[in-house]
């Protein structure tokens, strides 16, 4: 399978997220491996009031961006995935936040997705880095749910 670099339009067509809930800025999929980036601008409406004067990106947003990237990889690689299938975050098995992420700082993700045959479930593991520092270690489960 060839490496697939996805445009913003392609990302938007693969995920149901929109507007301020859409966190990815770019993605590349190589089989069941995915890399991509996310950042949150200082005036993002979800950041208002989150540590005023010393804002940090909430950890749940770091997890959600990882889940969105995993969803992109699944949509690109799953043979049984249809437009009626919705990928949902089913479990956060492990997550470690190694340092704060500030608004405007780009987080680069590197994930590996492993399908669980016959279950409609996908195990995801990987890292997020910002400015060369590890900011997130994560293990997730994504489930394919019919709409």
Core attributes:
147 residues, alpha+beta
Mean pLDDT: 92
Main sheet record: 7 strands, antiparallel
* Percent in helix: 10-25%
Question: How many E strands?
Answer: 7
Derived structural class: alpha+beta
For the record, give the distance between the C-alpha atoms at the N and C termini, rounded to a whole number: 28 Å
Global shape: globular
Write down the secondary-structure element order: EHEEHEEEE
Strand content: 35-45%
- Cα-based radius of gyration, to the nearest Å: 15 Å
Unreliable stretches (pLDDT < 50, length at least 5) are: none
Question: Helical region count?
Answer: 2
Q: Write out the strand line-up for the largest beta sheet, numbering strands in chain order.
A: 1-2-3-5-6-7-4
Can you offer a commentary on this structure?
- The protein is of the alpha+beta class.
- A hairpin with a 2-residue loop joins strand 2 (24-30) and strand 3.
- The protein has helices at residues 8-14, 59-77, and strands at residues 4-6, 24-30, 33-38, 85-97, 107-116, 121-130, 133-146.
- The chain has two helices and seven strands, in the order E-H-E-E-H-E-E-E-E.
- Helices cover 18% and strands 43% of the residues.
- A seven-stranded antiparallel β-sheet has the order 1-2-3-5-6-7-4.
Short description:
The protein is an alpha+beta fold and 147 residues long. 18% of the residues lie in helices and 43% in strands.
Question: What is the fold's blueprint, element by element?
Answer:
Blueprint: E1 4-6, H1 8-14, E2 24-30, E3 33-38, H2 59-77, E4 85-97, E5 107-116, E6 121-130, E7 133-146
Antiparallel strand pairs: 1-2, 2-3, 3-5, 4-7, 5-6, 6-7
């Amino acid at each position: 399978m060839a490496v697939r670099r996805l445009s913003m339009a392609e990302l938007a067509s693969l995920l149901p997220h929109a507007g301020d809930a859409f966190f990815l800025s770019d993605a590349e999929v190589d089989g069941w491996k995915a890399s991509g980036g996310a950042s949150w601008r200082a005036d993002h409406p979800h950041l208002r009031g989150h540590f005023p004067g010393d804002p940090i990106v909430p950890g749940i947003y770091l997890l959600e961006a990882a889940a969105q990237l995993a969803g992109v990889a699944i949509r690109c690689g799953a043979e049984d995935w249809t437009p009626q299938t919705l990928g949902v975050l089913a479990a956060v098995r492990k997550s470690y936040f190694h340092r704060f992420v500030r608004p405007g700082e780009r987080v680069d993700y590197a994930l590996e997705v492993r399908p669980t045959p016959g279950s409609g479930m996908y195990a995801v593991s990987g890292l997020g880095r910002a400015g060369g520092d590890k900011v997130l270690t994560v293990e997730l489960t994504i489930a394919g749910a019919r709409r």
